[in-house]
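Re-run with default settings, no changes from the original entry. Doing this only to confirm the output is reproducible before filing.
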Amino acid sequence: MTKIYGFLFFILLSSLMACDSSSSSNTSEGQTQMVSEADYVPLNLFTHRYYTTDQEIFDRFGKQYHIKVNVFQASSQEILDSLQKQGEDRTVDMIILENTGLLEQAHQLGLTQAFASAETDENVPKKYRDAQSFWIGLDRDIRCIAYNKELVKEGELSQWADLTSKKWRGKLALAGQQEQSKNAMMLATVMANQGSSAANKLAEGLLRNAEDSLYTNEYEVFKAIAKGEKTVGLLNASSWVQISKNGNPENFEMGEKIGLAFPVNDQGRSFSLVGGAAIVNGSENWQMALKLIEFLTNEQNQNAFCEANRAYPVNPMALPGDFLISIGGFREADLSQDNIADQYSKALELLESTDWK
């Protein structure tokens, strides 16, 4: 199956780069400059995101800077695998991956290059940027404790470790392989904040209370908690919003039965799971890739970019969407994404060793 994905990946990449279309743009009122898209600077972007609003953002960027953004969508792991297969013949300029752990893996594999920009430094706080400037955060999420409101009191759960109590034996809903990166980022966060021993204890306790019965994805966890099949579980804040606020009446009703608690550390602060972007090593158009990163991190585009997947912006001047605001606020810990990303590979190994997959 991996070979098939890789083959399709190269076929689609070739078709993207072979595209030849043209258009015109107005430089100012009364003055029209004919610009052929064939003359645009090509920028090849591989992204894990599947939102139509992203394309609208890329189109605005393209028209403003006369850059043709060729977009290919695949899972983060497929993107990394394909970049490795391309070797020195990589034709990709920029990647957007699900989390900073994956971005750090790309860096360690030599797939990305460092970049510097005063604009991105201003747009994105230091804790969401790689200290060596190999990647940068674009959006944030919270790995929440989800609970059935009829079965759990508000405020009863405040830390991920609370879910390891014997009280929740057989009552905990966990997702497996399809949500591996989210689970790994949670464990990497614990490793960075409390050490490997605490992360091991958390993983073992969660699996014990789930009684080794893992759900396929977060939607299945969502349904199990809402229907009372399970009492508590793990859900990203954005996942709750995406499911319960997607216009489906049944999902809305189930969402109303689920409460969310933002897990905190001993100082009462929560941890963000951050997704982001990087410039591919050897890119001929790295300047344009950097320009796109600057574009995506400014206040206006942060609102649109993060609203698409119901995530929290990394730009402090941009506000989260109304649905996220309705969940409630949280105080964020000062732990750098650098420290979390460095633990990601170890967290994946922990998932494997505990058979959380």
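Residues 1-32 have pLDDT under 50 and may be disordered. The chain has two domains: 36-140+274-320, 143-270+337-353.
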